[in-house]
Amino acid sequence: MDRSDLQKLLTTAFPEAAIEVQSEDGVHFAARIVDPGFEGKGRVARHQVVYAALGTRVGGEIHALSLQTQTPAEAGV
User: Fold this and answer.
1) Of 27, 51, 52, 70, whose CB neighbour count within 10 A is largest?
2) Number of folded domains in the chain?
3) What gap in Å lies between CA 61 and CA 48, rounded to an integer?
4) Given CA atoms 17, 71, 48, 62 in this order, what sign does their dihedral have?
């Protein structure tokens, strides 16, 4: 999987979000997701929603995923 593939998956799962994905090797990724749907959810709950959207890809095609999840207010947007 490359960076753009992960970007597309996340954009489909979080259509209202601003999403940035980085990867230097195609298996280790960092993603910043700013989504109004995260409002009222803690960090763990936000990450669980992201992992659920990616399903079995995490631990397979996606070896490692570092997440930064924010609401628009937290991101200053």
Assistant:
1) 70
2) 1
3) 18
4) positive
Mind spelling out the 3-state secondary structure of 6-30? HHHHHHHHCCCCEEEEEECCCCEEE
* Sign of the alpha-carbon torsion through 27, 8, 43, 67: positive
Please name the residues in contact with 60: beta carbons below 8 A apart, sequence gap of 6 or more. Answer: none
Buried (b) or exposed (e) across 38-72, using 16+ Cβ within 10 A?
beeeeeeebeebbeeebeeebeebbeebeeebbbe
pTM comes to: 0.93
Question: Domain residues for 68?
Answer: 3-75
28, 27, 49: which is closest to 38 by C-alpha? 49
